User: What shape does this take?
Amino acid sequence: MRSSGGMSWIPFKIGQPKKQIVPKTVERDFEREYGKLQQLEDQIKKLHKDMKKSTEADIAMSKSAVKISSDMLTNPLCEQDQMFMETVTALDTAMRRMDAFNQEKVNQIQKTAIEPLKKFGNVFPSLNMAVKRREQSLQDYKRLQSKVEKYEEKEKSGPVLVKLHQAREELRPVREDFEAKNKQLLEEMPKFYNSRIDYFQPSFEALIRAQVVYYTEMSKIFGDLTGQLEQQGVTDEQRERENEAKLNDLRALSIVADD
Assistant: This one.
């Protein structure tokens, strides 16, 4: 039902009535309301996809951090220096705490935001089908209205009057069906669109709270880790100078000397 030139489509020019059976203002109202819902559907799909990708990346990040600290703990380098072993152990503890809180955050986002997005998105296929049924009913209405007009334009002989009566009888339930479908959609589409605020506001508030709780805990975890590192009394600048001096000593070895 999506089209760049408006939503209504005319498959054939044959059988189009001369009478304007749907006022242009009504058609504009319908296209405007349905257009808003089409845009909302696209936004919901994109947001659902982006949030899933974000939580998957979060999990991958914290799992990678845990693996790095775990690998460092099993590295023979740590076993040769007790102070370094304590530092890596503190890092590993911090990474595992981070991973646990991150998993809790992701679970909360999944439950309070991602799943509600998916459920809301699942409503659109039914809506789009209702719009298609309304469009089909409109085409039937136009076809039968054109048929009535054709007999109305002919000389009113007995057989023509019979066919005109039959055409009008055939048109009546089709017209009523379209008008009912059209009325229902024009009433319900704005209500559905406006419902998005009450539906999603609690979800997004929960999303924000989950992030706040997570980063508050991360501040505590890395604050504790920073305190342990500072107790060793060596600044990053001092470590950088020491590393550069040791690297220069390595460069002086014949096995790494340039040819």
About this structure: The chain has six helices and no strands. The CA atoms of residues 23 and 97 lie 64 Å apart. The helical segments are 24-73, 76-79, 82-121, 124-152, 158-230, 236-251. The mean pLDDT is 87.
